[in-house]
């Protein structure tokens, strides 16, 4: 079966990282691509491979919106057409490189690796949460693990009780009194929700609360295929029907795009500033990544289902996301 | 055909290296395992992979005899049963990880990767030679070569005349006057024996002998499947019917366990002390390993027999061991 | 299909690099070989693998013309026969290692990996250009790219206008006014010729010319299968019918021998002296190699033709060479 679902919007990167006049070269779904911003402020995405001798176009130069191959000087427009040839013009000018639809929405560049006719921007999942006027840091990581194992990690927040205790000050309330529900919504999202009522506050929040006060807390994570997630966290003073918030509600994207079957681009946000950004990196790279890498190693290239994993109630969200993806892959394989 | 014979006792390590309260994580026959000593002094061996998300259990913690997975806190007993779950208890507690029979004998931990019903400790080859009250160093090496090429090396001691001359003071007597016999015994062992009579002593032994005295010398190596070998060396004053020993007879284990098809755990003993231990490592890593690695490289992944090797009379023991293993693999493949 | 044409002469190295008494160990066409010069001044080529336990013979020692294996002391003559055995002589002395015909011509050692009966030295391509009494440096590089991509590079000199502008002072005259012809000759060679008439001289040659003088320039490259090329460069004062040379005509070998399907030995000459030699290395390793490596990466292991490359008029010579090789491989596969 095909490794990836193709008829979906994937995140290519943050718009702010694609500067005019430059080229962002990244591999997605196993193939190298160039993402660029053109002089009219729109974005484009081209295969990073010259059709002549297969050299990466990103090794070349950009002149206005034309990318010139370093090896023999063929020039390609942002639309992928050969627009300049130092050689036989007729032959060369008939050449082109593949392009993909790419759309900017909420500062995110979304691309559609499937049938371009089906690339409806209305299908982009809602990340209006990024409209927040509060300054945020938009970050990008690369992990040497397939994206489904990282989705498992994010869609099962109970892992925080085990690997993020020291960093997040998790105190067992999720395991002790958390109510867990998995729900779908009309956007096609799968929600994996934890709600805790009348529970002890995390250490870091005590100073903001009356002596001995309890809290209501929630951790909701929303998944859209293939792996575009949003995490919603709230802490309210207990008994206020979630009206007296201890801190403002938090909403953060956790969006994954496969680089290859075994490596992933991880896009997320954090508070700005060197300390907060280093903290977020540390959590992802020193706490989460070793676990998901060990999982990948343990699987030794075998299929997840073939290994008959133990499925716990807390996995319900992650498993539903895996099943949805498997179904989409199957549908595309049949189509 | 299967790469390994499964219904045999293999050496997992030295009992002294498996400390109570700790976990020894090692790959054998291509799969990761944990070896541990429990509070009652017995030993256990579990697959080093959580059945939930496949993370290595050895990344977790040990509390008494329970191993707790680092990722989601599932706890497993030394018998492989899930005995603690922070989640839905019924589902989790039905889970388990594979275990292997493991037995301590002469300070060696032996495991049986095949049918547990057939794991009869009476089949463990005799290493009572380790009962010697003289202090010894029990050592472990890892070599990036398949175990059969290392067996070839050990079962054909004539190589010492070529690669261990400087270190062992070998002086050609094996090639010049050695009598070579290959014999089997009722334990299933194959013996590859060299005996030299009225021969020049090695340089290092001259000071212990009358001026001009000759010696009788023997080098006997015993093999049990898969690759558990014992080397017996003797030097006696010539003409004494092996009664007047120049040095006490020496007996040392050379036991190999495949880590993967192309890498091997090598267990051996030497005299204790930094100098003697460094000397033994040097011989194995600087003299033997480069040869067997070059052999592996020369084979370039092809089958030994398909390459139609030149077989010399001195190879008789090694070839008989290879044939025995091939026959055992074939029998298991048919069963 | 077979990866390499076998019934052809390939370059093993420069005769000057194969010193008497030593062994040159190199992999060609995916197999390890030893090249050596014997006491009578002739050359020999043997498989670098002992037929006994497959250890590299080049790890052994050379005594006169006998190569002794380091592992068990078997000795092999330059003709590949086992001529010494410390063991059962009859068995061992019947053994041998494969050899290849090898011939010295113009300081080059040529070997024939195919049917020895067909190894006619008259088929060695003409490199009499190396008879030049002017001192030259004979150089050897290894590139991690298949030889056909390097052939593409050499057989399409237009790339110089893009990647060698700074180093060679190319000034666009090839693209602007070059006449390009591809011709064959009776030796089986394919010539890819560029001729420029009444054109601006390169910067470095202006001091040797009258103020404002134009030049006639030619760049001819000759290819013999599998990848033995010779580059002929000339600069004459324009209007002199190529009689008044600006610098003496230049002729240089560019001979490629596959090490493996994805790596290549590159043999060439340059002016002698540390500066000129460093310059040539820099051009090959910093300008050409990154391009051909990027091409190989872009192809991602797929077949050149299956990728439907854009073929430009300037590729005519390279494409004809590729077609010739494909035809030779096909003929050998059928034979």
Write a concise synopsis of the structure shown.
The first copy, chain A, has 335 residues and is α+β, with helices and mostly antiparallel strands. The first copy, chain A, is 21% helix and 31% strand. The first copy, chain A, has two domains: 10-123, Rieske Iron-sulfur Protein (3-layer Sandwich); 133-334, Naphthalene 1,2-dioxygenase Alpha Subunit, Chain A, domain 1 (Alpha-Beta Complex), CATH 3.90.380.10.
Describe the structure.
Three copies of one chain form a homotrimer. With 335 residues, the first copy, chain A, is α+β, with helices and mostly antiparallel strands. The first copy, chain A, folds into two domains: 10-123, Rieske Iron-sulfur Protein, CATH 2.102.10.10; 133-334, Naphthalene 1,2-dioxygenase Alpha Subunit, Chain A, domain 1 (Alpha-Beta Complex). Chain A is built from seven helices and 17 strands. Chain A has helices spanning 89-93, 147-155, 160-163, 165-168, 173-177, 274-299, 316-334; strands spanning 10-14, 24-28, 31-37, 43-47, 61-63, 66-68, 75-76, 82-84, 102-105, 108-111, 137-143, 179-184, 190-199, 215-224, 228-237, 250-260, 263-270. In chain A, strands 11-17-16-15-14-13-12 form a seven-stranded antiparallel β-sheet. A four-stranded antiparallel β-sheet of chain A has the order 5-6-7-8. A three-stranded antiparallel β-sheet of chain A has the order 1-10-9, with no helix packed on it. The longest helix of chain A is centred in the last third of the chain and has 26 residues, at 274-299. The radius of gyration of chain A is 22 Å and the shape is elongated. The mean pLDDT of chain A is 94.
